[in-house]
Amino acid sequence: MKESTMGTAHARRGNTRQRIQDVALDLFAQQGYEKTSLREIAERLEVTKAALYYHFKTKEDIVISLFEDLARPCDELIEWAADRPRTLETKKEIVRRYSEALRDAAPLFRFMQENQATVRDLSIGESFKARMLSMVGLLKEPDAELTDQARCVTALVSLHAGMFAMQNVEGDPEEKRKAILEVALELVTAANPPAAS
C-alpha cells in the first residue's frame, strides 16, 4: 500500500525537486534522518550527487523545503481566516481546510514525530511553532477557559499526530483522516459553545 501511495505521489508531483523530497522523506522514515546520506538519496533517485546538489546542498535544505511547502497553505489559511468573523462555522472551516492541507503532508508529520530532536535543532522548529500558535489563536476565544484552550490545541494536535498514531489501525487512509477530522471538529465545537442569549 505504501509503495502505491509513493508511486501516486511521484506521478502527481513529477518534477525533480519534489521527487528528491519524496525519496529523502521515505529514506528518513526508513533509516532515520541522521543515518541517511545525500549519496543514498542520489542513488535511490538514480542521479549523480552533482545533480542532487543542483537542487539541495544539504539534508537540512531538503527538510526546510518540505516545511516551506507545508507553510504556504498554512499561511494562506491564516490570512484567509483573519478576515472572517470568529464564528463556530468559520473555526470549523479552518479545521477542515487545515486537514486538507495536511493530507499530503502525512509523511512529513511522521518524520517530525520520529525525529523530534532534529526538528528542534533545525531552523524550521520556531517558525512551525509560531504558525501553530496563530492557528490556535484563530480557533479559541481570547477569554476562553483553560479547558476550552486545551480543546483547541488538542484539535490541531489530533490532526498532526492522528495519521501517525493510526497508521497501524485497519482502514482506508482517507477514512481514517475523516475520522480524525470529525474528532477535531467535535473538540472545536465543544470549545466554542453558542453564546447565551
UniProtKB/TrEMBL annotation:
The keyword 4Fe-4S does not apply. InterPro entries: DNA-bd_HTH_TetR-type_CS, Homeodomain-like_sf, HTH-type_Tx_Regulator, HTH_TetR. SUPFAM superfamilies: Homeodomain-like. Gene3D superfamilies: Tetracycline Repressor, domain 2. The keyword DNA-binding applies. Residues 14-74 form the HTH tetR-type domain. It holds the Pfam family TetR_N. It comes from the Bacteria. PROSITE patterns: HTH_TETR_1 (PS01081), HTH_TETR_2 (PS50977). Residues 37-56 bind DNA. Keywords: DNA-binding. PANTHER family: ACREF/ENVCD OPERON REPRESSOR-RELATED (PTHR43479), ACREF_ENVCD OPERON REPRESSOR-RELATED (PTHR43479:SF11). This is TetR family transcriptional regulator. It comes from Streptomyces olivaceiscleroticus. The lineage of its organism: Bacteria, Bacillati, Actinomycetota, Actinomycetes, Kitasatosporales.
